[in-house]
């Protein structure tokens, strides 16, 4: 199947070809025709499956082939809500990329940056608005945006928006929208809350599911390394240096933990930076660009900040700490193994995190492989099926500091290998 078979216009096909895409992904094959027919859509798809293009392309076609609302100033005809700034930027980039041959205007608004430039942009008139819920409500409160002409509403990664407590903001926004509109919901995972929200928002929706519910991408190899909590950082530095990992995304539970780990890894000779909600938007953008360009080898992130990270062919994701919400594990490892590429997800798990691990395995309906790294044996093994390092033939007990044939962790003086550039992938997040 080709994009031409989906009923897209010539100008959109031209933009798709310019971007290097040759054939639609499964989510695009199902979502695009349904949206073009004006139907509500309730879709479940993991990150990296092309879901952004799955709603952006038909949205552009619908708006580009109908007459704009006849008001003095152009007001938004399509509203796309996202949970984070990074994802909002990514979606807006897709709108501009695919809509470059159309005369439609788009804008993105989110917190963490000045509101005045956003107000000026909205006053000039737009057709498509990409926004985070909080900042959008700021504009609604200041009467700097009119949502009464919205024809299409998109809730992107709505599961994360609910996790972040945006449900009340979303309901306030919905109250400002016309009842007669097309609504599209996209979620990486399903939950009772998501299904309840869908039942109140959608009218006879087409339900699309391109992957089993709450499952990790098949292209991601998952492994758990049991280790004592106090030795996690040492093990992480060792693995990055010994295996010469050139681009690694590491997850922590807290913002403070992300800052501290990035500093410790830098002390071990690994160029690292942290990205989280307390960072300014400029700092977050700079950190992400440095990571993409190979100036930084390790990006340490919290769950919230990671949403919308679009990194070509990211090979490694490390859970320095397991999330307490098992669905977040699926979101995390979805950063790798994208667009048909094989990725690797490594989890460093201490005894206290064993309940979280059990919840994750229950959600995935699988038992994750557990391997003990020689020289980093935990005091208490996380799971009985964890493979142990083979003991040495010696009567003397050896401490963790004893000499070992395995290389030691990187030190300040040991410089990591220069990272290489990733090739452009052929799918949109």
UniProtKB/TrEMBL annotation:
It comes from the Bacteria. One of its GO terms (molecular function) is ATP binding. Residues 381-429 are annotated as: Disordered. GO terms for cellular component: cytosol. Residues 219-379 form the Helicase C-terminal domain. Keywords: ATP-binding, Cytoplasm, Helicase, Hydrolase, Nucleotide-binding. It catalyses: ATP + H2O = ADP + phosphate + H(+). Belongs to the DEAD box helicase family. This is RNA helicase. It comes from [Phormidium ambiguum] IAM M-71. The lineage of its organism: Bacteria, Bacillati, Cyanobacteriota, Cyanophyceae, Oscillatoriophycideae.
